[in-house]
Amino acid sequence: MLDPRKLRLLRELARRGTITAVAEAVTFTPSAVSQHLGALEREAGVPLLERTGRTVTLTPAGRLLVEHADAVLEQLERASAALAAVKGGPAGALRIGAFPTAARVLLPPALAELAGAHPRLEPMVSEIDPADVSAALRAGELDVALVHEYDFVPPVTDASIETEPLFSEPMYLTDRPSIAAARADAWITGKPGTLCHTMAIRACQAAGFEPRVRHHIDDFDTVLAFAAAGQGVALVPHLAATTPPNGVTLTRLDLSRRTLAAFRRGNSAHPAIKAAVASFRTATAALPL
Question: Where in this chain does the record put each HTH lysR-type domain (predicted)?
């Protein structure tokens, strides 16, 4: 019988590439991860890993097992959700991930609704960039998360994660009538590796130039303060631009940012996830969009 916990480790190895990265993600030691994967090989009866020095790759059998692991783990999520529904209403810890704008604007009213409707539920919020959400959900660090996707940045596809769309908002450019008109300007973008940074770079590339990035800042309030101080131009979403500081003009662009709720595939019927997504939708309805 194949152990689902070990299947999760094999799946993480397929995605992360190294034993060390898997260990960091699941808070195991590398030695423990190696031992669990070795035990999985014995359970499977065929080699799943090829080891060359410190490098570990999956064998064809290992890759085949990973393909089945997603379906197996999805069914386990469905079973867990069904059992939770039998127990009654949502209760216990609910680990929520959110990007900063959503944490500031959307979560406070959503959490207030959750507290009133489901007092036995204990939401626990962590700020996280959407680029890191899939890994955190797979590792069990989060149960549900608010993520976003931009034009010019295809959504990160992960067979183990499903999403529900919540709302879309327009993007604005500070102090210039168009992206092309900001060709010679210094730019303020998110940190490299974030979706916000990738979106800004690709939007400029689509306008025919590589931006000269001066500042890397993730918090949009700070971005707008820097723009007001003449430190560069930036792309900001609607929810971050409702009250711009004095001296900053905003041009609405034909670009958008879409916010979604994300959770492990098979978990959509879990009472706590359903309650969280319902509270997100209620809070979304009141947003100044």
Answer: 2-59
Q: Which domain holds residue 179?
A: 169-256
Q: What is the mean pLDDT of residues 136-142?
A: 88
Of 84, 106, 138, the last residue of a domain is 84
Query: Same domain, yes or no, for 233 and 101?
Result: no
pLDDT in the model for residue 157: 64
- pLDDT-derived band of residue 110, with 50, 70 and 90 as boundaries? very high
Domains contained in the chain, number: 3
CB contact set of 176 (below 8 Å; sequence gap of 6+): 182, 185, 233, 251
